[in-house]
Amino acid sequence: MATAAGSVPSVTPSTVITDEQRRWVVIGICLNKLLTPVIRTVLAKEILLWYNNLCVSPKPIHKQTYKKHAMTFPPSTITLNYGNINKNHDNHKSRYSAYDYNIKDPESLARLFVQPFMAKFSGFDQTMDLSAALALLCEANPFHTSGAAAQANTVRSVVRNEWAHCDFSHWSDVNYLACLQHIESLVKKLNLSSADENEFVNELNNWKDKGVQLCCGQAVDPDLLRTIKTEVAELYDSVAIWREENEDAQMQLMQSLESVQQFFKKEIQSLQEIQSVMGKDIEKLKVEQEYLSTKYDTTSQQLQALENQVAKLAIENQEVPYLFMLPDRTEWFSGRESELDNLHKLFQISDDINESKVQIASVCGLGGSGKTSLAAEYAHRWKDEYEGGVFWFSGEDEAKFATSVDKHAVYFGTLLEASSGRTLVKTLDVISKIQKPWLLVLDDMDEYKLCSNIGMLLSGPWKRNVRGSGHILITTRRKTKVMSETIRGFKESQCLQLECFSLEDGKRFVFKRTGISSNEVTCSEAACLVETLEGLPLALEQACAYISHLSCSLSIYLQQYKQYSIHLLKDQEASPVSLYESPERLAVHTTWLLNFDYIKQSAHGKFAVRFLNACAFFNPSEIQKELINPGKPAIDDDSYRNYVATPLGSLHILKLLTEFSLFKESRSSLAVHRLVQEVIRDNFQPEEYVLSFVDAVRFLCYGFSCSRSPDDLLTGIIDKNHDRASLQATDPSFFHEWHKMCLHAHEIRKLLLSFLKLSQVLDQRIVIPQTARLVYECALHLNVNSMAAEAKEVVDFAYKIIRLGNTSLTKDDLVSLFPHEIPLPELVRRVISYSCIAPHVATVLSSVGENVEILPVSDLKEQGNDYYKDRCFQKAVEKYTYAMNSTDGKSSYDPTLLSNRASAFVELEKFDDALRDAEEYISLRPKCCKGYAKKALALYGLKRLWDAACVAALAYYYERNIFGGFKPFSENHFFQSLKDRIYICSANMSSLVASILHPNSYSQEKRDLPRKIVILEAGNYTLQKQLRICDCIMIGVGDGATASSPLLSFQGRNGIISSGCINAENISLAFDNGHWESTDDCDATFLNCSFTDSPD
User: Fold this and answer.
1) Domain map (residue ranges) of the chain
2) Among 996, 982, 1092, 1000, which Cα is nearest to 1048's?
3) Cα separation, 897 vs 876, whole angstroms
4) pLDDT tens digit sequence for 217-243
5) What Pfam families has UniProt attached to this entry (predicted)?
6) 207 contacts 26 by C-beta, under 8 angstroms
7) Residue 110 pLDDT level (bands cut at 50, 70, 90)
8) What is the value of pTM for the model shown?
9) Topology of 854-978 in CATH?
10) Could you tell me if 613 and 692 are in contact, meaning their C-beta atoms sit under 8 angstroms apart?
């Protein structure tokens, strides 16, 4: 039927609306309710900023005149419609010369980009409809760079215009989801805050889900229908005020919405009627359900009682023999008391015969760390608690596991020759019926893929039928995280991580295993042996077995070991603990072959092997993860370079190396036992040795290139001052990464020396400039650590490497490779030395003294204190360390443990360790004198006398009796001589500062002590005279409420003239017209200081 031109066909509400109409409704709601308000908000902000920028441009838009007005605003190409603003079209029609071209506000700027029928909005609010908002987004300059303009054009054409055409057939499921994605993409390009963007995306996804519910063909929740009905009503009102170019299209759109609204109204009424009827039926069903539930519970209880009675009768009629299947107790087992106690705590033995419970715990650690011995000792020590029996299974491989199960099955009468699986099931069934506590040890569970029978033991349903209480103890090389992934329901907290022997435990083992008597001489030799083998129990067992077999002394063995190293350990295997142990597990040079083979056979294992081989030349205690890199120069293997360049590649290498405890992983580095490195190098063929050495050199050169180098600091100083180092501010951690890389360089240098001595033919691939540069880094590092003579020898070795190689270098090449004179200038050396401290990561816990107890670890702490009083300082360190490791982290342990351990390190002359502990203690308790006192002792031990004096002064500031009440200070002439040199100033003493700092005399001689140490409290010090200083330290301290430093303000032309040695820390200086002037002999160091031209 034809319609008159301009008329609109009526829309009769249908009794059913299609899924396409439902999707159309949801899209309309998302456009009106979600997208439009967001766009208006963004436009209001961005158009205002753009308008302000255009007003201050060379051609300000609010002062335009005819023919000097902008025709377009690039990158938009549309002609600006000035008829839309200032009532130009209403008043002047097409007389453009009469138009007012001044763009007076952001709203006027926005109207220039839209068609006249869209330009009726009064602001970026409800009067601006979506069509106008999208048009503005498409053309306005602020939205082109982010891509929002292009995406807005897509939303306008593909979503908004298609929706307005009311062609319901268009709204298939594919188009519906695509349009929602277009809307989300637009919003993500509007530079919203993360919170606002997430809120929008969540709301959009919510409506997407509602659309799915509407179209799923199932019953719809009445609440959802009511929500839709409300939103459709709001959408109808919004469309009513839209300004469409075609009024017929707008009318059709409104009629479609009215039809949908009427449908949802009827749908809600219908559902309400259905719910009323169903409610009555549901009540009847509830009554019947309650009756059946009660009857079921009664029947179940009767059935359970019968089952319990049957089971009880079966158990009473069957006797399970008691088995104690442990290997013999090791007669020389020693130490490990805390590990045994902790393992016992992991198991909670219950006397309740009715409780069915199987607990699993594991001992994890490096191969050769004594896991099997610990498990055997645990079982022997607490065998009386396991009245139901003790069983020992081997988890080394499937065959050994089956053999060990068969030995138990013989006694239980469960052996089935034809099937190991059925034998295990029957054996476990017998064990499950034991009513008294029992222990099952699964030793050496190290296979990469566990066999199905071991899986049955650990995770099978038999455990649910256990009548008594059982414990399963696993020994494995798997790390704790891997254990939790291997065994269902297993927690990392159920693992005991076994480390190598401590020094004291190691010495006790040596004396017990060899039968050698302990005295002052042998005690020292035993300690040397333990430290040489880094406490590895398997290595110590092999060494002691060799000593016992030949009846030689400890000193003779040590001499032999220094000459033959790992080869000496091959001469004697360890004694087996278990009958099932393979010979390979009894010697250091073979026990890790299982780990090496696992890595080689894994997917992409060749890349991990390459890095593993290079690690044999690094410092074993801290191998930075950054050393997994493509090398510099890049190694020849493209596949390796590409693999390690990806985050997943590096993570996979780390996983393979650490999964079975070959390496230990910390937050930023790896650690490996030195004997593991020796075994790797010992297994190298000559060609493998060279290739792996070159890989290590290249990896380390890459690591150096990514860390801050002293070259940067030294080059900057020389370029600026030509012939000498001058005033230089330092960051205590600036060269820390370089320092750690140097530790690897030292290892490479030592191994290179040994290699060159033993090699009959010089391999040119080793004596390359990169190797020489690493040796040169060692020389710098030695010089920085006050070992100038050794540094000079190492520099000569670096030049020798160049001479031995085939690389032809010019004089400029050598200067670039070895850019500095060694020994370094003293100030330069000190600056680098001060900048190698590890960065602080701790959080301040308290700003008061030491009388706050954070987390009691009193027993361990008191044991450490007792050892300290008995002058057993190493044992004290171990107790303090164990106390800290027993807590949940730095934020929970008692900080006084750090202070106490620092004191023990000082007594052991481990001053670097003492310095780290003292600094960490200060970071936790910055106003406690003890931290500064311990730090001063460490610096004194490192021969950094001026630094020690500075820190001792801070200790005095926080405790005036420190020089008399702190024994290490009161008995030391150096610290006693400091007290009369310390001056403390407050801001109201400005007039006295110059007099205090003024030297009593001048001297050209280098001083071990500063003449004066001046501590300036927070505040503004106004100085009205010239300040002369010589050989002094100035320290600023905060007021506790703020972190501000004291400010020295010099009036007029006054400033500072300095000579000698000057140290300044935490001080701000401001000059009106004066300056700081230094004499030629002045060496000055500044830490956390600032300089300005004036106080303002």
Assistant:
1) 19-245, 247-315, 337-499, 501-593, 602-694, 707-715+729-844, 854-978, 981-997+1008-1095
2) 1092
3) 10
4) 444 566 666 677 677 777 677 666 655
5) DUF7779, NACHT
6) yes
7) very high
8) 0.51
9) 1.25.40
10) yes
